[in-house]
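A common beginner's mistake is to predict each chain separately and then try to dock the pieces by hand. The better habit, illustrated here, is to supply every component at once so that their relative placement is modeled jointly.
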Amino acid sequence: MTNLTDLSHRRSVGRTAIRRAAEAVATAIIRAAGWTAIVVLAAIALFLAWNSLRALDEVGIASILTGTSWYPTSDPGKFGAAPLVLGSLLVTVVALVVCVPVGLAAAVFLSEFAPRRFNEVSKAVIEFMAAVPSVVYGLVGVALVVPSVKSAFGLDSGLTALSGGIVLGIMALPTVVSISEDALHAVPSSLRHASLALGNTRWQTTYKVTIPAASSGIFAAVMLGVGRAIGETMAVLMLTGNAAVMPKTVLESVRTMTGTIAAEMGEVVQGGLHYSVLFVVGLILFVVTFAINLAADVVLERQRKRWGA
Amino acid sequence: MRLTRAQRARLSESVARSLLGAAAAVVIGLAAFVLVYIAWRGVPGLSWEFLTEVPRNRGREGGIFPALVGTLYVVVGTGLLTVPLGVLGGVYLSEYAPRRPSTRLIRLAVANMAGVPSIVYGLFGLAAFVLAAGFGRSILAASLTLTCMTLPVVVTATEEALRQVPADLRHAALALGASKLRTVMTVVLPAAAPGIVTGVVLGLARAAGETAPILFTGAVFQMRRLPDGPGSQFMALPYHIYTQVTSVPNWNRDLVWATAFILVLTVSAASAVAAVWRSYRRRRTAW
Amino acid sequence: MVTSLRSAVMSAFSAVVEPVRVEGGVLEEAERAATGRFELRSVSVAYGSETVIEDVTMNIPPQAVTALIGPSGCGKSTLLRCLNRMNDELGNVRVGGTIALDGQDIMAKNVDPVELRMRVGQVFQRPNPFPMSIYDNVAYGPRTQGIRNRDELDAIVEDSLRRAALWDEVKGSLKKHAFDLSGGQQQRLCIARALATRPEVLLMDEPASALDPISTQQIEDTVAELKRTVTIVIVTHNMQQAARISDQTAFMLRERLDQPARLIEVGETRKMFTNPDDPRTEAYITGRFG
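With all components supplied together, the output reads:
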């Protein structure tokens, strides 16, 4: 056996030690970039938790979650976040009522009945809806939805949970439509053909076979829609009136968790108790949306495995 | 009147079809309406002065030039940070990541980052970049915050685009004596460029329209001069709309709608150009 | 023109120990004889815990065409990929035994597979040009080796395209996108691309299986021309093709699904096709199975 360096018989082009080292460095950088997501997510959790410590210590999570009065600037401040949590829930429920039936029906139509050309148009349209900034949705809501709600129900002000929820529902539509459409698309066409061959109509096939087969993905789509609605800030801030009281109906002004942070963080003393309580609210939001997304992700992953896509 | 089974089936088929079609029409109609409405309300306020002048009388008169420039700065800053990080992150997931639970964890983190509410990014940016890192309320802090938010979009788009590149091409480069790194950088990444660029544009377009993450990290209500560096505060288009509507009594409807129109136009034009370019390149690389 | 080309190529490969000789205007390296000889001893391959190839011992003579034949799934392509260590890239593949190229163990720890692949090129089953121009495709390998000089690259690209019998068809349109070529032209481009690194061995994995008869004929002509300068190992399904173009033939067979594939017989092609030693070879060649 001759010397192995002979393998690179073109000495001028052989891989030098420098080149190899440079490659090792570049590979290490790529690996580090891959881990950024975990680092950022962990950093978010840590910074939220760290800044929440004072409030958790002085007020306590139980009284923050169950307290019904939110008067952060009174002396001493009252930090009962229940009205905010309820406000977020109420707005989210309205949004779901608006977007789930329409969104799912549209997804079923686009996936099962619409011609292919139509599908490309609708994809572009849905991408456009998702690209419109939330502050613009807020503006459209202020101009159209708020006055309509006011006159339809004879209210003094149209800034209500209902107005915010309607706009939020429209904003969540692209998420719900595109993810449930993907779930329906993922169902193998052999299943549909089997059902059609048994003499079922297209619609019978859809509700007996395709929708049940895609149910987990559709569930995930609704979950992600919920996550989007709970986390949305600007539109609700502009539309719900922001009264931090326990809401009784959807025709009252409410204040959401996101809206509270956005409205109050600009005016608090950094490091103060109010500041810290707002971080607790952020932490609650983070945990809730994290759980929702995790659940949706697990469901979607299981579906992917099932259809082997 | 009694119907046979087959007639009932046919009836329910057509009822279902029209109800579902109506729902789809509502969704598409809504989008079209929003687009047309914004354009209809926005066009009257447009003028050359509107684009090139500073706001006067708390924004009721004058233009939005500083807000345009501020948004541009923040988007460029975000792009400079998010493109290398996101693309390399996608390269790692597609080309380097071993099939291990740790990789699954990274994917989970990416998916979850996309679902974190934008206001939570705002809080994080305030705590981490403005205060802890000492960047203050600035273009730098806001760009870093928006980078965290757009990162999952770019990572996911890159990974998916790389996966579309046939394994054959990688093997061809490797068989020519290219190292793995050279293979990825000179063959796989260029072949995946259309998908990556589309993802980057979508991510940056979203960043341009975001308000909540910049609320506490550097956006200001009004500035008479332009930002003079990454440490400077800035005006931004979405924040301008928000403050006009909520804090300026008798806000000028025409000017605010024109601002919204400019914002939507920029964001959707960028997405449209990226989509067209992608489909053009797709035809070139038919796999 | 010819003189300047010659000098350019001379300088391009000045690092090559062997002198370059010009014959009838066609560049050749006739003096580079006797490099590119493979010796395989008891080679086995396992995917995870499953052994798929066992005990292959054979020599691959330099500057000749060796055909690997056998039914699909008998491990021909896997064996081929051992010769440039492409199996390393597929993960979870273990290769046993020894494989020597010109006396050097290519599986030794200190052998860089990246350097090995500059000496042992490969052409794949389906044409897989890079999504770039014809020129950039061919120049990819030399650029990887660090050659940046424009004249050198021009000379290498022309020489490689000539050897792959594609030059006359594309010489006016080297900037054209490779995807604009026909399937047969793309495959010859891939051959030119592989030749541009000046390999001593060229591995071809069913290079004509995705092509029409005319393109197949052109590829076969190219192979016949190339074997004067490089060692060629070709995997093929097509018995006639093996008989037409190869000097040596190796027949592999996996007799039962739960057993690894083995080398049944290896020998001079003419003998294998007229008077094989093993009845299984005869059965396969005469079309009784596979």
